[in-house]
Amino acid sequence: MKEQQYAVVDRAMLPNILELVEQYDAEAWCVFPAPVDEPFALVAPYLALLTPNLEQYLTTLEQPWGFFMASSADNKSLIKHLRSLLSVYIQEAKQPTFFRFYDPRLLWCILDCLTPSQRVFFAGPMIRIRTAYPKQREAKFKSHAPMHRPPKHLTLNQEQYLTVLAQCYQNLEQEVASLFYQHQLQDRKDKSVSEVFAKQLVKHLSEWGVSVVSDIKSVAQYCIDSQVTEWKRVPTDWVTLLSNQQYSASYRIKALIKHGGGSSEL
């Protein structure tokens, strides 16, 4: 089969990808295994077989929507391989961790810390990958003979895991800082204030076991709605509630948003 141009697109970042695929007469398939409930489909990665116009459109986007990829494999083989990358094992951990390898802010951090054999597994049928945002970078993968006993999944050691995790937190801090900055008063905009608050908020929440991105962003949005712009202005009642790990993270977030911390009954 001849080499074809694809893109792996994060629908959480580009919600209208399916409309774009139809508009540019392309094709796309959800990477998550079927059946996919609508809430998951809205945040799933999609494999898109590109047309020149769709490729050009994606190249112009200034948002971390995913990455371009070239392969001579068919879409079914590619989807099977991409699904194998959605879960990663950490050494000595019993359960796999969901792996957002398709986030272009994370992709190069992952590839840079993999061993040669891990890169072979990661590449699979992919010949070449390329990102356009936030940085323009390309990698070509050498063809290798099939492994005698290929692994079923990617396993990271602790050092690799911590490297990737640090990049994840950095990405999240940037997203939260951007959210804070967007809602600052026009005559008081200060990126440094937003960045410091975002870093402190993400750090404290992660230490308290609040690690789901949507939960952290919900707390950030609640801070905005409550006009809390610095960590020192976070009410003590909020801190008491959010740091109480006797309860699940999702319960604490819901209690905060519903009752404002102090008036809730745990």
TrEMBL record:
It comes from the Bacteria. Residues 6-119 form the DUF4123 domain. Pfam families: DUF4123. This is DUF4123 domain-containing protein. It comes from Vibrio kanaloae. InterPro entries: DUF4123.
